[in-house]
Write a structure and sequence with these properties.
7 strands, 3-stranded antiparallel β-sheet, 9 helices, elongated, about 50% helix, alpha+beta
Length: about 210
C-alpha cells in the first residue's frame, strides 16, 4: 500500500510517500518525496525476484504510482481504493444537481421549493439514502417535509441527475460483492449505466 501525505509547505518536500502494511496499517517505510525521480530511486533498489513476489499494489489515482506498478511490479494486481471512484461520481452528481438547481431558479425563481431544497440541503444528495430517511426539511413559512421524498422528487426532474444519484447509491454498497468476479461484473454494470445516458460528466466518470 502506498499513499502520500502533506508533510511541509516546502515545494521540494511538500508530499512524502508512506508504504504501509495492508492488514495492520503499520508504516513500513517513508519515501521523502512522491516525485518520479524519488520513487524510481527507491523502487529500483528492490531485487527483481522480490518484486515478482508482490501480488497486490494498492494506491490512489496518481499517475506516478501507476507507472511504478507497471515498471517494477508487472505481476501484481493494481488496486485503486473505491473511495477515489466514489469521489469522482460524487463530484459529477453535485455538478448535475447544480445545473438542475439553477434551471429551477431561472424558471420558477428563488422561492421554488426544489431550488431551495437543492441549495440548502446539497450534502444529502451525496450521502447514503439510508441517512436521509428520518431527516425532515421545513421551508420558511411552510410545512415540514420528508428529505427522502424531496430528494426523489428533485432527481426525477432530470434523468442524468437520476442516473448519477442512483449509481452513486450502488457504489456506496460495493462491499456487498465479496469476490473478484462479482466486483468485476458490478463495475462493468456501473460503467455501462453511466455511459448509457450520453451525459458528458457521467461518461467522464465511466472512462475513469
Amino acid at each position: 500500500c502506498i499513499d502520500e501525505i502533506k508533510f511541509s509547505d516546502n515545494a521540494e518536500g511538500k508530499y512524502i510517500c508512506l508504504i504501509s502494511d495492508f492488514k495492520t496499517g503499520d508504516c513500513i517505510d517513508v519515501i521523502p518525496n512522491r516525485r518520479m525521480d524519488y520513487l524510481d530511486d527507491y523502487f529500483s533498489k528492490i531485487q527483481p525476484g522480490e518484486a515478482k513476489m508482490v501480488k497486490v499494489f494498492i494506491s490512489d489515482m496518481y499517475d506516478g504510482y501507476a507507472t511504478i506498478q507497471r515498471k517494477y511490479f508487472p505481476h501484481a494486481i493494481h488496486i485503486i481504493d473505491m473511495f477515489h471512484i466514489i469521489t469522482q461520481l460524487s463530484r459529477a452528481t453535485n455538478r448535475l444537481r447544480t445545473r438542475v438547481m439553477n434551471e429551477r431558479k431561472s424558471k420558477y425563481g428563488e422561492d421554488d421549493i426544489y431550488y431551495k431544497f437543492m441549495k440548502n440541503k446539497w450534502k444529502l444528495f451525496l450521502c447514503k439514502k439510508t441517512k436521509t430517511i428520518n431527516k425532515t426539511y421545513t421551508p420558511k413559512g411552510g410545512a415540514e417535509m420528508s428529505c427522502f421524498d424531496l430528494i426523489q422528487e428533485c432527481i426525477s426532474l432530470d434523468m442524468n441527475l437520476w442516473d448519477a444519484y442512483n449509481t452513486l447509491q450502488e457504489l456506496f454498497n460495493y462491499h456487498y460483492y465479496s469476490t473478484y468476479e462479482e466486483g468485476n461484473r458490478f463495475l462493468d454494470r456501473v460503467i455501462n449505466k453511466l455511459r448509457a445516458g450520453g451525459n458528458d460528466l457521467l461518461e467522464e466518470v465511466a472512462n475513469t
